[in-house]
């Protein structure tokens, strides 16, 4: 399935359908005002790193943010990493999972500021294909951001579960 929709800046290639297996994760959960997302992510990754190191749990994939529903004034989300086994709850860090499901996926290239347009493109594509979305959606941060990097080098994988 392909789309004839024009590609906005920031998106690369077309959306695709992918089947993913269940993934064991270690996460920090929260309901966060959009203005506080950066601080929530930073604090969560710090806590996750410390807890995973203490428990000798191995990270098996890049960082992600799982949103229970599309963000509005607040975001109800989990921030974490795929791991080799469940983490023991410690502080704000708990065990979680990403579902085994079929997803519509799009890779966003560039700054996090452009993610909204790429999400809109992905949801429009699912509608064009006659697919029902939900529940949840997640971003996988394929490129780890650093303070001195060019934001155009960031790559973020967008995933939304779908059914026909």
TrEMBL record:
<protein>
    <submittedName>
        <fullName>GyrI-like domain-containing protein</fullName>
    </submittedName>
</protein>
<dbReference type="Pfam" id="PF06445">
    <property type="entry name" value="GyrI-like"/>
</dbReference>
<dbReference type="InterPro" id="IPR011256">
    <property type="entry name" value="Reg_factor_effector_dom_sf"/>
</dbReference>
<dbReference type="InterPro" id="IPR029442">
    <property type="entry name" value="GyrI-like"/>
</dbReference>
<feature type="region of interest" description="Disordered">
    <location>
        <begin position="145"/>
        <end position="164"/>
    </location>
</feature>
<dbReference type="InterPro" id="IPR010499">
    <property type="entry name" value="AraC_E-bd"/>
</dbReference>
<feature type="domain" description="AraC effector-binding">
    <location>
        <begin position="13"/>
        <end position="163"/>
    </location>
</feature>
């Amino acid at each position: 399935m392909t789309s004839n929709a024009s590609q906005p800046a920031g998106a690369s290639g077309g959306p695709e359908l992918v089947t993913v297996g269940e993934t064991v994760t270690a996460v920090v959960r929260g309901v966060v005002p959009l203005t506080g997302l950066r601080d929530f992510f930073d604090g969560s990754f710090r806590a996750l790193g410390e807890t995973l190191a203490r428990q000798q749990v191995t990270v098996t994939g890049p960082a992600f943010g799982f949103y229970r529903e599309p963000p509005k004034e607040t975001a109800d989300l989990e921030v974490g990493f795929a791991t080799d086994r469940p983490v023991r709850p410690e502080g704000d860090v708990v065990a979680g999972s990403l579902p085994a499901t079929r997803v519509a996926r799009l890779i966003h290239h560039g700054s996090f500021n452009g993610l909204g347009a790429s999400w809109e493109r992905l949801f429009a594509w699912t509608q064009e294909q006659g697919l029902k979305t939900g529940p949840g959606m997640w971003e996988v941060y394929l490129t780890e951001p650093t303070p001195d990097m060019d934001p155009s080098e960031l790559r973020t994988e967008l995933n939304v579960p779908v059914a026909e």
